[in-house]
Write a structure and sequence with these properties.
alpha/beta; 2 domains; disordered N terminus; Iah1-like; transmembrane helix; transmembrane; SGNH hydrolase-type esterase domain-containing protein; SGNH_hydro
Length: about 280
């Protein structure tokens, strides 16, 4: 008796001679090989082209111009600004500048100016081939914590020196880069039983931030003053921004950029490359 294999038809298994099945498999394999010659070079190339070389269609077009870069440096306020569900101000900026500029978030939760300053050389190397057109600098909330309450506290004079060091580090490498400062925002004292974050201390460091920004001739958004009395409305946990708070900060950033672009006589107008958003 010839050897048989069982092939399911959906109703019952029927025996098929092995010889016939083998011939069928050979025919299928041959068809696949021929099909591979016809379409494999097209479909296969399409799948792997992105890993090896740009698609041929792009060879006939002009090379894309690098998009301007907006770099955001900050603490957890900036880090959480990427959260879409919170309408994070970085996410909103990325939407504003879609296809025109890239908005990069380098916010780091818990960080202070003391943490950031040593990382400047690495950031300069990272962006050496594509210097940022604009850096939005938001630091001071953690620096302002009450002394001995956390290990984040940075004394006022060091805070100012660190801010200047960060800015000068970028400007020495990228003289055309512009800066926009954001002061520490408000905090809700009712939410902190340990009193590590105090609204009055945030205000003191906001003043220091404005002092540095003005000395360096860059614009500053005084979030602490603008948000006074709105703590219950704009904060999610007494310190970080909720949806309303993020939208407010986004609007202030956009207003600062538009205002600077509208005053062309300023020495350092803010823009994302040559495309300010009004």
């Amino acid at each position: 008796m010839a050897e048989v294999e069982l092939i399911r038809t959906g109703k019952e298994a029927s025996p098929v001679p092995t010889q016939r099945l083998g011939c069928r498999r050979c025919l299928i394999a041959a068809c696949l090989v021929l099909a591979g010659v016809a379409i494999g070079t097209v479909a296969g190339a399409a799948v792997f082209a992105g890993f090896a070389a740009p698609p041929k269609v792009e060879e006939a077009t002009m090379a894309p111009t690098p998009k301007p870069l907006l770099l955001m440096i900050g603490d957890s306020i900036t880090q959480q600004a990427s959260t879409v569900s919170l309408h994070g101000f970085q996410a909103l900026l990325a939407e504003n500048y879609i296809r025109r500029a890239d908005v990069i978030n380098r916010g780091r939760s818990g960080w202070t100016t003391r943490n950031y300053l040593p990382t400047v050389p690495a950031m300069l190397q990272e962006w050496s081939t594509r210097p940022p057109s604009l850096v939005i600098l938001e630091l001071g909330t953690n620096d302002a914590t009450r002394p001995n309450a956390t290990d984040q506290y940075v004394p006022p004079d060091e805070y100012k020196a660190n801010l200047e060091g960060i800015v000068h580090g970028f400007l020495d490498a990228f003289p055309a880069t512009k800066f926009l400062f954001l002061t520490p925002a408000v905090s809700d004292d009712d939410m902190f039983t340990d009193q590590a974050h105090l609204n009055a201390r945030a205000g003191a460091y906001a003043s220091l931030c404005m002092e540095v920004a003005r000395r360096l001739h860059f614009p500053v958004v005084d979030l602490w003053t603008l948000l006074q009395g709105m703590q219950k409305d704009v904060l999610s946990d007494g310190l970080h921004l909720n949806v309303l708070g993020n939208e407010f900060v986004h609007d202030q950033i956009m207003a600062a950029i538009a205002s600077s672009a509208a005053h062309a006589e300023r020495a350092a107008p803010l823009s994302i490359g040559t495309v300010p958003v009004n």
